[in-house]
Model the fold of this input.
Amino acid sequence: MEGAINNDIEGIVAECGGACACATCHSYVDDAWLDKIPPMDDMEDSMLDAAFERKHNSRLTCQIEMNDDLDGLIIHVADNEY
Ligand code: FES
Done:
């Protein structure tokens, strides 16, 4: 989420600033990367239930902590501007 905000990526609104309280950083993780990112916790899972068009690969990008192993991570931004 911070990487998207800092690089003016459209669609990542991040109203709560990364507190896992708004779901406006909702995105879809490319299937090839699903097993490489850390699993979601209960709080993220609950917040995603409020997201528009949740899918099997939905994640809140503010909850994905980046590291070198995630270099090249492919994320498709959800429709967060409803
Ligand atoms: S920025 Fe609000 S839930 Fe991610």
